[in-house]
């Protein structure tokens, strides 16, 4: 059991030592967009502070009135955190212009306005966090955080020790784009297929699939099974549940 302070609360407010914060951080904590997305909202002139159109770098004080598209945003936000066992055939977006199913369709009725943290591609299954906590989302996805994420990978055929070592050392998956060193272990193999655990500390687009393509291997199954030591813990495919306060605290302190 992880230590959890008695007064732990899943909410945000500008108070105490932090009397102000940058406008993009404030908007991210509201769950309206990521920090980068919040910068776009500001640049488009959609955000006002005390009736004045906000600009990049503005700070928000505890008694300021902040509006987005004319709607006043509260200084206190109740955060929500969900863990989802994503199945194949869903995209990790809030909506999709191709009318494909999205992970939002799998959230329980009554779930608040939350967003996927990072992405698993259309064919990839497994652990996905959804939240309106912009700080946690940033921590879990920022390259400098180097949070380990573990994947179960199945490839067709076998893999040699030399090929494993090449992947572990880092490979060029696009011109000028080289993967970081990673951990890869074979857990089962025969002539038809090989199962492996791959642990990454970064999250480039379709990274694992591209890594194995560099050694001529096709992935026919890919599932994220861990973020740090957080697992799906019996959560059925296609199901979601709220994270416990202990689990949230763990992720915030990875």
Structure at a glance:
Helix content is 19%, strand content 31%.
Structure write-up:
The chain is an alpha+beta fold. It folds into 3 domains: 67 residues, Roll (Structural Genomics Hypothetical 15.5 Kd Protein In mrcA-pckA Intergenic Region, Chain A); 84 residues, Alpha-Beta Plaits (2-Layer Sandwich), CATH 3.30.70; 80 residues, Alpha-Beta Plaits (2-Layer Sandwich), CATH 3.30.70. It has 6 helices and 19 strands. Strands 9, 10, 11, 12, 15, 16, 17, 18 and 19 form a 9-stranded mixed β-sheet that branches. A hairpin with a 2-residue loop joins strand 17 and strand 18. It is elongated. The two termini are 15 Å apart.
Tell me roughly what share of residues is in helical segments. 10-25%
Secondary structure tally, helices: 6
Q: Main sheet, how many strands, which sense, barrel? A: 9 strands, mixed
Order of helices and strands: EEHHEEEEEEEEEHEHEEEEHEEEH
Mean pLDDT: 90
Task: Find the CATH topology of the largest domain.
Answer: Alpha-Beta Plaits
The total number of structural domains is 3
N- to C-terminal distance: 15 Å
CATH superfamily of the largest domain: Pseudouridine synthase I, catalytic domain, N-terminal subdomain
Low-confidence stretches: 1-11
Strand content: 25-35%
Q: Briefly note the structural class of the backbone.
A: alpha+beta
Shape: elongated
Estimated radius of gyration: 20 Å
CATH class of the largest domain: Alpha Beta
CATH architecture of the largest domain: 2-Layer Sandwich
| Number of beta strands | 19
């Amino acid at each position: 059991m992880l230590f959890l302070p008695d007064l732990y609360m899943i909410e945000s407010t500008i108070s105490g030592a932090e009397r102000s914060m940058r406008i993009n951080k404030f908007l991210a904590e509201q769950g309206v967009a990521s920090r980068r997305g919040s910068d776009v909202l500001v640049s488009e002139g959609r955000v006002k502070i005390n009736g004045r159109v906000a600009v990049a770098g503005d700070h928000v004080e505890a008694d300021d009135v902040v509006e987005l598209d004319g709607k006043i945003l509260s200084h206190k936000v109740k955060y929500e955190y969900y863990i989802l066992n994503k199945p194949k055939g869903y995209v990790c977006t809030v909506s999709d212009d191709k009318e494909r199913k999205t992970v939002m369709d799998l959230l329980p009725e009554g779930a608040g306005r939350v967003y996927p943290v990072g992405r698993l591609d259309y064919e990839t299954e497994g652990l996905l966090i959804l939240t309106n906590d912009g700080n946690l989302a940033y921590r879990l996805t920022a390259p400098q955080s180097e949070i380990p994420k573990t994947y179960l990978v199945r490839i067709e055929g076998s893999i040699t020790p030399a090929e494993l070592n090449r992947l572990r050392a880092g490979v060029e998956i696009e011109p000028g784009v080289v993967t970081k060193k990673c951990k890869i272990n074979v857990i089962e193999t025969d002539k038809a297929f090989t199962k492996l655990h791959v642990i990454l500390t970064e999250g480039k687009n379709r990274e694992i699939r591209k890594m194995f393509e560099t050694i001529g291997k096709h992935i026919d199954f890919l599932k994220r099974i861990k973020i740090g030591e957080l697992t799906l813990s019996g959560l059925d495919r296609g199901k979601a549940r709220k994270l416990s306060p202990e689990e949230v605290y763990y992720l915030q302190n990875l």
